[in-house]
Amino acid sequence: MAGAALLAGFLWMLASQVAGMLPSRRRHWPAAIILIATGIPLLGWITFETGPLFGLLFLIAGISVLRWPLYFAGRWTASRVAGRKGEAGAGGE
Q: Is the distance from CB of 73 to CB of 50 less than 8 angstroms?
């Protein structure tokens, strides 16, 4: 049922756009966590049902939607790998 996987991916993208338009005092982090938690299994399902091309397209679309959480996760990971303690970009060198 490749159509169901693609429909679910479309609904995920629609939900991400709606979540981005809603006002939030916490800078949309709760919505980003929910989108990541649902997007990873959805990416696997789309890739399994429709093949790697559609999986790659959905991955690129998901990265474009969640670019800031990925950016901050990359900064945090780089600070951990570099051996710095504390939050990424805290300034304590």
A: no
| pLDDT, mean of each 10-residue run, the chain (93 residues) | 92 93 83 92 97 95 88 89 66 49
Q: Which two tokens stand for residue 53?
A: 């091309």
Answer whether 35's CB lies under 8 Å from 65's CB.
yes
Residue 67 is encoded by which pair of tokens? 């670019």
What is the CA angle 57-60-63, rounded to 5?
Answer: 150
Q: How many CB atoms lie within 10 A of CB 82?
A: 8
pTM of the model: 0.74
Rounded Cα distance between 37 and 40, Å, is 6
